[in-house]
Amino acid sequence: MTKYKLQEFKLLNFEKISLYYNKKVFEPNLTTSLLIDVCNKIIKKKNKEKVLDLGCGCGVISHYLYKKKKIKEIYSSDVSKESIDCSIINAKFLKSKYDIRYSNLLTNWKNNKFDLIINDISGISTNISSLTKWFKYAPNDSGKEGINLTIKILKNYKKYLNKNGSLIFPIIGLSNKKKIINFMKKNSIKYKLLDSKIWPLPKTLYKHEKLLNQLKAKEIIDYEKKFNILTTKTEIFVCE
Q1: Neighbours of 14 (CB within 10 A)
Q2: CA spacing 20 to 30 A to 13: which of 30, 62, 210, 228?
Q3: What's the number of domains the chain is made of?
Q4: pLDDT tens, 63-80?
Q5: Residue 75 is part of a domain; what is its CATH number?
């Protein structure tokens, strides 16, 4: 337990959650908090939903849902060993039943079906993430348009859902939203926007505004500039 320290994180709904964490695990962010808020609203049957948290990091989403009695067992996965270890520590801290495993996307969940899959796997253009420290300890194989992993999930998620099951996933303004939406339309995937939040880009990206403009012109990313402040948007979608 010396490797991880108990840390408090603030959520968008003014709640706070304490869990074990270290800096080699991807830190819960706005997208994580938006996903938690959406899940809290849409999961109706307490303790009856089988939920898979993809890209679990420290396990904050499952941790929250378990504490709220939305789920009775934790299912989650990641490609980071540090994240898996941290998530297991937090599951034990809750004294919960859990199945936490290494998995590249959904590959290690064959023969499993869920009522809800939460996709919190990276979805930011590698052109942008390479300029930040966001993915210093976490992989980002989303490609230059930031959509590779999201598209792979959208191609396969239905095999892992129970009847009337759903997938929740974010589209971040630092990726090609248009291509993701077109993929869903082309493949007759019904989708719905559940929530969205505008947030400021870090100051470290301001010196790369020329590159940002080039990527925006190519529709690879989308952002706005008002009063010399750069902002983008995270949107949370659900599909069946």
Answers
A1: 6
A2: 228
A3: 1
A4: 999 999 999 999 999 999
A5: 3.40.50.150
